[in-house]
Amino acid sequence: MSAIITEDPELRNKLRAFQDRDQAGSCLAGMLEKYRKSDAIVLAIPSGGVPVGLVVSSRLDLPFDLLIIRKIPIPGNPEAGFGAVSLEGDMVLNDSIVRMLGLSRDEIVELAGSVQRELSARNRIFREDAPFPDLHGKVAILVDDGLASGYTMITAVRLVKRKKPARIVVAVPTASASTAKLLAEEVDEVVCPNIRSGYSFAVADAYWNWYDLSRDQVVDMLRQRGFLKAG
User: Fold this and answer.
1) Candidate from 64-73, 80-89, 119-128, 181-190 with smallest mean pLDDT
2) Where are the domains of the chain?
3) Contact at 8 Å (CB) between 201 and 174?
4) Nearest-10 crossing angle of helices 177-184, 151-161
5) Which of 44, 116, 166, 216 has the smallest number of CB atoms closer than 10 Å to its CB?
6) The CATH number of 4-68+133-224 is which of 3.30.750.200, 3.40.630.30, 3.40.50.720, 3.40.50.2020?
7) Mean pLDDT of 110-126
């Protein structure tokens, strides 16, 4: 059975629904109010999910951590991906793109290995190699700044499922309708105020002020909120 998808009908198919990621996080927090001060944890996906997740955790008085996951870029086109991989090796592939590109298993392993080396660096910088939090019996709220294809979030879900949480909630400000339905088959709840249908979808179109976050910007955010040590 598919999970219930909670959206804001007033934001359905709306472009520029949010001023920035902070406002989007505030909107999400309002829709997640039932989890305030509960046995839940906010798990954000860097980079774009960090400012959103920090607002959600702060507003709801919940602990915060990161899911170190990244797309596997298409050779020669690093802005596009054909799947995603986690720090722990969970991997979800877009099989149709893999077939179209004619990628062999060895090529996929090599490309994923390169991404995992980057993930190890991110884990050291963003989490200081801290042990992953115990999720057993807890509500895991997985946050990003939006879902396009959804492969990064599905990879995150597969990782989190192994940690045996009581409930998995995907919470994102914006998503394509088809991807929201795809995630609903994987988790217990999807919360997404701005769902958009149609052939073309870009996460950036939900924001007036949207930009790629640098590694230093993410570190500064984490330090300001006390997740990382200052200095």
Assistant:
1) 80-89
2) 4-68+133-224, 71-126
3) no
4) 10
5) 216
6) 3.40.50.2020
7) 94
Helices (H), the chain: 21-31, 49-60, 95-101, 105-127, 151-161, 177-184, 215-224
Contacts 24+ apart (CB under 8 A), 52-55: 52/21, 52/22, 52/24, 52/25, 52/28, 52/143, 52/144, 52/145, 52/172, 52/173, 53/25, 53/143, 54/25, 54/221, 54/222, 54/225, 54/227, 55/21, 55/22, 55/25, 55/26, 55/28, 55/29
- Cβ atoms < 10 Å from Cβ of 84: 26
Could you tell me which of 59, 25, 60 has the C-alpha nearest to residue 39? 60
Query: Within 13 Å and on the Cβ side, how many CA atoms surround 159?
Result: 27
- For the entire predicted model, the pTM comes to 0.96
Residue type, 38: S
| 15, two tokens | 């472009």
